[in-house]
Amino acid sequence: MAHGNRERTSSEVRRVAQQIDLLIHNIGTLVTMKGKSGPRQGREMSEAASLQQGAVAIRGGIIAAIGTEADVRAEIGGAAIAAAYDAEGLLVTPGLVDPHTHLVHGGSRENELSLKLQGASYLDILAQGGGILSTVRATRRASEEELFHKAKRSLDTMLQFGVTTAEAKSGYGLTLEDEIKQLRVTQKLNEAHPVQLVSTFMGAHMVPEEYKGRADEYVQLVIQVMLPEVKRQGLAEFCDVFCEQGVFTVDQSQRVLEAAKALGFAVKIHADEIEPMGGAELAGELGCISAEHLLAASDTGLEAMQRAGVIAVCLPATSFNLRLKHHAHARRMIELGLAVAVSTDYNPGSSPTENIQLAMTLACLNLGMTPEEVLTAVTINAAHAIGRGDRVGSLEIGKQADIVIFNAPNLAYLPYHFGINHVHTVIKQGKIVVSQGRLLQ
């Protein structure tokens, strides 16, 4: 017993000796999302884990202490505090995570707005050579430098809205050279920008125009040439495929994802966005880390996902922008015990917005999710959907100090008061990168 007392005394001495780089204090409501090692499933998504009058102590970009301000100050004892930040009684949450974006691309598709207003569907525009194929042409024309600067502007915007970690898919090159170009841009942005990026290879995003009518040949190109080279260069962690009518069949999607798994990629799938193709069932069969869109997914498919632990990534801004009559059945997913994440699906066509707060509001209004469920969906569940749940997505000792201070009195105010940016301050790995809503250079 005496030995145990000596260990505690020694630990306390070490804490006093170590400087605290930043102490965030006078927090009104602190939402931590801590309490579970994996994603929150079903009813667990309502457990936001919050406390009043909180504080967070940061050392070396990592959370050193967290809790009520009284407890945190007792925990850090007499440690020197290099800087203190007054949260002014505001709402503090983990840094937001956007788990599904098409960040790097050329061009824009505002010309398609009038077509949508005239009643043209997403698949109609695609069949006319627009949609993804239009962006492919623009991306192929763009230089790596042009793509970098365009994507950086979007990443700056995402950061100002509170996103501190995001996924970025390729899929607008559709040749080996142009897919590699996109992935290299993602890699460079990850090195140069505060937002941490997780890279996904999506060469099977669309059958390119030069392979029209020869989808199987293109699938073989993806499997035999693109995937091995992307793996060799270490440019992506995940592989995704668009399983949809007029794009890739379930069989073609399965071949791509099985080849990716054999090379060591973790796999994702764009599943059942427009038509019930059986993509959700395939996600369950293959044990994908996530399945995305899911507007037309069957209960059978959702149940297969739940059994396999596949995270459902819902994209409410996309169904809103496409003016669809129905949205992803998030309430049914939660009833079935799935872990649900929410994302912007930022891309130049179906969801041209970097505003994750808008997606959060739409998740409440159109998907029927509660504010607590939505925050879970854009923090800890989103982090697990891109393999980062062990380091971001919740505020816990030992995790990265990725933190957002919102100009809001409580959590419900975020989706309730929509159309504005609520961010006051963003802290990434212990450093203030947005202050008073403005980027710090």
From TrEMBL:
<comment type="function">
    <text>Catalyzes the hydrolytic cleavage of the carbon-nitrogen bond in imidazolone-5-propanoate to yield N-formimidoyl-L-glutamate. It is the third step in the universal histidine degradation pathway.</text>
</comment>
<feature type="binding site">
    <location>
        <position position="347"/>
    </location>
    <ligand>
        <name>N-formimidoyl-L-glutamate</name>
    </ligand>
</feature>
<comment type="pathway">
    <text>Amino-acid degradation; L-histidine degradation into L-glutamate; N-formimidoyl-L-glutamate from L-histidine: step 3/3.</text>
</comment>
<dbReference type="InterPro" id="IPR005920">
    <property type="entry name" value="HutI"/>
</dbReference>
<feature type="binding site">
    <location>
        <position position="205"/>
    </location>
    <ligand>
        <name>4-imidazolone-5-propanoate</name>
    </ligand>
</feature>
<protein>
    <recommendedName>
        <fullName>Imidazolonepropionase</fullName>
        <ecNumber>3.5.2.7</ecNumber>
    </recommendedName>
</protein>
<feature type="binding site">
    <location>
        <position position="102"/>
    </location>
    <ligand>
        <name>Zn(2+)</name>
    </ligand>
</feature>
<keyword id="KW-0479">Metal-binding</keyword>
<keyword id="KW-0378">Hydrolase</keyword>
<feature type="binding site">
    <location>
        <position position="172"/>
    </location>
    <ligand>
        <name>N-formimidoyl-L-glutamate</name>
    </ligand>
</feature>
<feature type="binding site">
    <location>
        <position position="273"/>
    </location>
    <ligand>
        <name>4-imidazolone-5-propanoate</name>
    </ligand>
</feature>
<keyword id="KW-0408">Iron</keyword>
<feature type="binding site">
    <location>
        <position position="345"/>
    </location>
    <ligand>
        <name>Zn(2+)</name>
    </ligand>
</feature>
<keyword id="KW-0369">Histidine metabolism</keyword>
<feature type="binding site">
    <location>
        <position position="350"/>
    </location>
    <ligand>
        <name>4-imidazolone-5-propanoate</name>
    </ligand>
</feature>
<dbReference type="Pfam" id="PF01979">
    <property type="entry name" value="Amidohydro_1"/>
</dbReference>
<dbReference type="InterPro" id="IPR032466">
    <property type="entry name" value="Metal_Hydrolase"/>
</dbReference>
<feature type="binding site">
    <location>
        <position position="100"/>
    </location>
    <ligand>
        <name>Fe(3+)</name>
    </ligand>
</feature>
<feature type="domain" description="Amidohydrolase-related">
    <location>
        <begin position="91"/>
        <end position="433"/>
    </location>
</feature>
<feature type="binding site">
    <location>
        <position position="172"/>
    </location>
    <ligand>
        <name>4-imidazolone-5-propanoate</name>
    </ligand>
</feature>
<feature type="binding site">
    <location>
        <position position="109"/>
    </location>
    <ligand>
        <name>4-imidazolone-5-propanoate</name>
    </ligand>
</feature>
<keyword id="KW-0963">Cytoplasm</keyword>
<dbReference type="GO" id="GO:0050480">
    <property type="term" value="F:imidazolonepropionase activity"/>
</dbReference>
<feature type="binding site">
    <location>
        <position position="349"/>
    </location>
    <ligand>
        <name>N-formimidoyl-L-glutamate</name>
    </ligand>
</feature>
<feature type="binding site">
    <location>
        <position position="270"/>
    </location>
    <ligand>
        <name>Fe(3+)</name>
    </ligand>
</feature>
<dbReference type="InterPro" id="IPR011059">
    <property type="entry name" value="Metal-dep_hydrolase_composite"/>
</dbReference>
<dbReference type="InterPro" id="IPR006680">
    <property type="entry name" value="Amidohydro-rel"/>
</dbReference>
<feature type="binding site">
    <location>
        <position position="100"/>
    </location>
    <ligand>
        <name>Zn(2+)</name>
    </ligand>
</feature>
<keyword id="KW-0862">Zinc</keyword>
<feature type="binding site">
    <location>
        <position position="345"/>
    </location>
    <ligand>
        <name>Fe(3+)</name>
    </ligand>
</feature>
<feature type="binding site">
    <location>
        <position position="270"/>
    </location>
    <ligand>
        <name>Zn(2+)</name>
    </ligand>
</feature>
<comment type="similarity">
    <text>Belongs to the metallo-dependent hydrolases superfamily. HutI family.</text>
</comment>
<feature type="binding site">
    <location>
        <position position="102"/>
    </location>
    <ligand>
        <name>Fe(3+)</name>
    </ligand>
</feature>
